[in-house]
Specification:
Shape: globular
Structural class: alpha/beta
Number of domains: 3
CATH class of the largest domain: Alpha Beta
Largest sheet: 6 strands, mixed
Number of helices: 18
Radius of gyration: 24 Å
C-alpha cells in the first residue's frame, strides 16, 4: 500500500493517490489530470475509483475527465445530487481496492453530502481518514457555505457537524492518520495549520473544535465566530462540480491562443474582456496596458482571481511573463475561469515596442514612505487581513482588507491623497490596479509592504483605527 499526498500550495489543497496490489484510487483530484495519469502509468496500476469528499467550492474537480480517461467510477457520499453518473455511497459502505478497504463515513455539516473515507489496511487496521473539509489540521470546515442548498441555517449545519465529528471521527483510534483536503491559506476554514497531516489523537489535544468537554452550543459559537463572507466564485465552482464542465484540454487550447499586439485592443472591445496581467508587482508598476488588473502568478493567484473577479464567465485576455502562459491558464482553470480568449503574444514588451499607450503605478520605497509620512497628514490604508492589521500596523493606518475593496472603495475621496500597503506588495498592487481601472489616481503604493515598513522607524501600533475615511 502506498499513500501519496499531492499538495497544491496556491490552493492549499491536498489530493490523494493511493495504490494497493495493482489497483489505485484518487481522492479529490484537481482539474488537470495529467499528473494522475502519469502516476498510474509509472506504477502500472488501474484506477478503480475516484472518491469525492463533497462538492468543492474553491476549485473545479477533475473527476469527470479522469473518469472518462480511465473508466474509473466516481463515488460521492449520501445526499449527493449531480448531473452525471456516479456511485451514491451509503454510510458505512465498503469498497475494496487491492488488499485495502475504504469505508464510507458520512460526516455532514460542512455540506450535507460531506463524507470522510476511512482506509483500513491489508492487516485490517484502521490506518487513515481522508476527511475532506470536515476536519482540518487545527480546524473544521466552515458551516455556512451550504445553507441555501441544505435549507438549513448556519447554526443548524454547525450542530450537524458537531455530531458528525463526535460520532464518526473522535471515536476512531488516536493513531489513525488525518489527511484533510486543505491547509493554511484556504478560505474553507479560518484557523488551519500549515501542517498537512496529523493524527486523531493530536487533533483531540490541539484542535479547538475537538475539545473533550465542549458542548454543542460552545462549538456552534466558536466555529461560526469570525467567519468572513465566502468568495463570490465559490457557488459557481459548486455548480460546475455538480453539473460538469468542459474538459481541461479545451480550456487549455483556448487559453493558449497567441494574440498579436495589433489585434489585442479590438479583441478586448469585441468581447468586453478583462485584461489580466500576471507579472510581478514591480514590473507591473513600471508599465502596463491601461485598464489591466494585476494579480501576480507568483502568489496565491487563483484564489485572488476568484475573489477579485468573481464571475467565472468573465472573458479574460492574459498578459504574462514569457513562458508562463500554460501555467497561468492551468491555474485559472482550477477555479473555473474557462472563458479565456488567449494571451498577448510577446508579452508586455511587444506592447511597449509597438509604442502603444501604457500606464504606471506611483510606487515608493518603505524608507521614502517613512520619511514622507512624518511630515504628511495624508491618510494611510492597510489592506491586509484583519488579523495581520491587529497584530501590528503603522500608527493611525486604517484597516481596509483587499477582499472588501468593493465595499470601501466608495468611501474614498478622489481629491484626497492616501498611502497604501499590504504585507509585501502583492495585494497592494492588486488594489492599485483596481483603483486606477476605476479612475482613482490619488494614492501612493508602498513597495515591500509592512515587511519593509517594519524595518523603518515610522511609529507602529496594534491600536485599531476604525474611523471612516
Amino acid at each position: 500500500m502506498k499513500i501519496e499526498q499531492i499538495y497544491t500550495g496556491c490552493l492549499a489543497q491536498g489530493a490523494y493517490y493511493i495504490t494497493s496490489n495493482n489497483e489505485a484510487i484518487i481522492i479529490d483530484p484537481l482539474r488537470e489530470t495529467k499528473p494522475y495519469l502519469e502516476r498510474l502509468e509509472r506504477d502500472g496500476v488501474t484506477l478503480k475509483y475516484i472518491f469525492e469528499t463533497h462538492f468543492h467550492a474553491d476549485f473545479v474537480s477533475g473527476h469527470l475527465d479522469l473518469s472518462q480517461q480511465t473508466g474509473a467510477q466516481i463515488v460521492y457520499g449520501p445526499n449527493a445530487v449531480a448531473e452525471f453518473d456516479f456511485i451514491s455511497a451509503t454510510d458505512n459502505q465498503i469498497f475494496k481496492v487491492g488488499d485495502i478497504t475504504i469505508k464510507v463515513l458520512h460526516t455532514p455539516g460542512h455540506t450535507m453530502e460531506s463524507t470522510t473515507y476511512l482506509l483500513i489496511d491489508e492487516n485490517g487496521k484502521e490506518n487513515a481518514i481522508f476527511s475532506g473539509d470536515t476536519l482540518f489540521i487545527g480546524d473544521v470546515g466552515r458551516p455556512d457555505l451550504a445553507q441555501k442548498s441544505a435549507s438549513m441555517t448556519q447554526d443548524e449545519l454547525a450542530a450537524t457537524l458537531f455530531q458528525s465529528l463526535r460520532s464518526k471521527i473522535m471515536t476512531l483510534p488516536d493513531d489513525v492518520l488525518v489527511y484533510p483536503a486543505h491547509g493554511a491559506g484556504s478560505a474553507c476554514g479560518k484557523n488551519m495549520s500549515k501542517e498537512t497531516v496529523s493524527t486523531i489523537g493530536e487533533q483531540k489535544l490541539n484542535n479547538y473544535a475537538l475539545r473533550a468537554n465542549m458542548t454543542e452550543s460552545e462549538f456552534i459559537t466558536e466555529v461560526t465566530d469570525g467567519l468572513l463572507p465566502p468568495p463570490a466564485y465559490f457557488g459557481m465552482n459548486v455548480a460546475m462540480n455538480k453539473k460538469g464542465s468542459q474538459s481541461f484540454e479545451n480550456v487549455l487550447n483556448k487559453g493558449m491562443k497567441p494574440i498579436d499586439v495589433l489585434d489585442f485592443e479590438l479583441l478586448v472591445e469585441e468581447n468586453n474582456a478583462l485584461i489580466l496581467d500576471t507579472r510581478n508587482s514591480g514590473d507591473f508598476s513600471k508599465g502596463y496596458i491601461p485598464q489591466s488588473i494585476n494579480i501576480g502568478i507568483s502568489g496565491d493567484f487563483a484564489p485572488w482571481v476568484g475573489s477579485m473577479i468573481g464571475n467565472v464567465d468573465q472573458a479574460i485576455i492574459l498578459v504574462t511573463e514569457i513562458g508562463k502562459e500554460e501555467e497561468t491558464v492551468t491555474r485559472l482553470s482550477r477555479v473555473g475561469f474557462d472563458n479565456l480568449m488567449g494571451f498577448l503574444n510577446g508579452g508586455f514588451q511587444a506592447w511597449q515596442n509597438a509604442g502603444f499607450e501604457m500606464d504606471t503605478i506611483h510606487r515608493i520605497t518603505a524608507e521614502q514612505f517613512a520619511s514622507e509620512a512624518k511630515t504628511d497628514s495624508h491618510k494611510i490604508l492597510d489592506i491586509r487581513r484583519d488579523g495581520e492589521y491587529e497584530a501590528e500596523h503603522v500608527h493611525e493606518a486604517y484597516s481596509r482588507p483587499l477582499a472588501n475593496i468593493n465595499n470601501w472603495i466608495k468611501d474614498i475621496n478622489p481629491s484626497e491623497h492616501f498611502y497604501m500597503y499590504c504585507a509585501g506588495g502583492y495585494r497592494s498592487m492588486i488594489a492599485s490596479s483596481i483603483l486606477q481601472a476605476r479612475g482613482y489616481r490619488n494614492f501612493t503604493e508602498v513597495e515591500g509592504g509592512f515587511n519593509a515598513i517594519a524595518k523603518t522607524n515610522i511609529p507602529k501600533t496594534n491600536f485599531v483605527c476604525q474611523s471612516k475615511l
